[in-house]
Amino acid sequence: xxxxxxxxxxxxxxxxxxxxxxxxxxxxxxxxxxxxxxxxxxxxxxxxxxxxxxxxxxxxxxxxxxxxxxxxxxxxxxxxxxxxxxxxxxxxxxxxxxxxxxxxxxxxxxxxxxxxxxxxxxxxxxxxxxx
Amino acid sequence: xxxxxxxxxxxxxxxxxxxxxxxxxxxxxxxxxxxxxxxxxxxxxxxxxxxxxxxxxxxxxxxxxxxxxxxxxxxxxxxxxxxxxxxxxxxxxxxxxxxxxxxxxxxxxxxxxxxxxxxxxxxxxxxxxxxxxxxxxxxxxxxxxxxxxxxxxxxxxxxxxxxxxxxxxxxxxxxxxxxxxxxxxxxxxxxxxxxxxxxxxxxxxxxxxxxxxxxxxxxxxxxxxxxxxxxxxxxxxxxxxxxxxxxxxxxxxxxxxxxxxxxxxxxxxxxxxxxxxxxxxxxxxxxxxxxxxxxxxxxxxxxxxxxxxxxxxxxxxxxxxxxxxxxxxxxxxxxxxxxxxxxxxxxx
Lengths: 131, 348
Ligand SMILES: [Zn+2]
What we know:
- The complex is a heterodimer.
- By secondary structure, chain A is mostly beta strands.
- Helix content of chain A is about 10%, strand content about 45%.
- Chain A has one helix and eight strands, in the order H-E-E-E-E-E-E-E-E.
- Chain A is globular, with a radius of gyration of 16 Å.
- By secondary structure, chain B is α/β, with parallel strands linked by helices.
- Helices cover about 35% and strands about 25% of the residues of chain B.
- In chain B, a hairpin with a 4-residue loop joins strand 12 and strand 13.
- In chain B, helix 2 packs parallel to helix 3 and helix 6 crosses helix 7.
- The longest helix of chain B has 20 residues.
- The radius of gyration of chain B is 19 Å and the shape is globular.
- The structure holds zinc ion.
- Zinc ion (ZN) binds next to loops of chain A.
């Protein structure tokens, strides 16, 4: 990701902020300019719930470029408690411990590094709930 | 001289975070043939964690616990010696992630293991003077030791964040006074571009750690007109299990006073996070009226001592953040190979 693009999305990625359509109530994350459901352009910021349930998941063993050192890692579809589905990594757990339906919470992690001299991208992943 | 505030300043919220990987001292011995066990085990970051992610986790918990609006935080200072960027503050990333930007001061502090308490004092001054309503001080590190070095057993990862506020805002522990003791002592250092620190081996004990910790603790207690018996708990910087216990005994504290905050045997030395984590673990069990002594130590060298008096507020609210004990018990053992990968010792 380019530095300007990363920077534009920083606060949304750091704080799990998506957008809600003021016409039909649909919620999007990442953010969108136009509602995918009704076509409205009237969207406002919406703070997503930071807790949810694993809907489905898989282990990535052959990662795309830039993610090699994190492999193997788990990618899941998590249904947040406000009904929004997010595609996210799940951390602090081994693949054999993963279960569909398990409860997870947001964790702030490094997402990607642009080599040893470029910027470090941070953002949210999910983990089993710490309590 | 003792440092006191013009207005009553206290801790409004605090939060801790410790990564879940653990490397046992026995595993270091297995690989390098040593026999030392300065601690049982130490915490190690996951591949996608660093001092910034640790600082953010602590900060988020502190905001939750303090139940304050992030926009009311006027300063975010991160004490660390493991900055992911040589130039670019961790403080801005933390401030952005908790929603304290843009009307906020943000910077990083470096003073080896006492950078976190250095940030305490700055925050306390800013809050006391009325310049800001709340200020956040964080100590977070992902310290590295050279393979087979004594520090490889103990150099660990973790941190804690504190939000300071001024009465009549709700405070859970009020500052009674602070006292610093600093000299130019080269007991431990790391030059720019070097991956591992160097240290003066035996020099790190008496003239460095003990001299500064004991001088700061005694200086503070003397000026407050207090004795060890007046404190329910005491926390000393924890580079290993032996040092804080010896310092406590020399000053006149028993094990009962330091035990709740003695996290090093199962976490390791979290550097700038060490005293802050110990204080957090102590606050976790403290009751209104308890007096807590906290003394940091940073190589280079210096100590900051603080006396806090726990307020009724600590009992009033059910906490929304996990106590330190939860993080200590949340663990996954790793072997030396995985440890080497996680700490970037292999080049792929
Ligand atoms: Zn719509």
